[in-house]
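note to self — DONT lose this again. spent like an hour looking for the file last time. sequence + predicted structure for the chain T wanted, 91 res
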Amino acid sequence: MNSRLSSFFTTVVAAVTVLVAWAGAPRLALAQGYAPVADKDPTTIAANPFIAGAYGFIWVALVVYLVVIAKGLTKAHAEVNELRRKLDRQA
């Protein structure tokens, strides 16, 4: 009996939640509509320098990352070769 009552209340709460969300959706959509600002000149800030700077930063970060990885790989290869030489001397 207790689980039936709990299941019933859960269903009622879910149904009410769905109905409230469904009823409020059109008003929420109207409130979020696009409204351009009429008194602001859209060309006051040129975006090209910012975009170029962002792309430049990304490329520099990528090159630095690749250089760091290459140095690490070179060091790892040198250590592996040194270990191989030591193992060959022992064998």
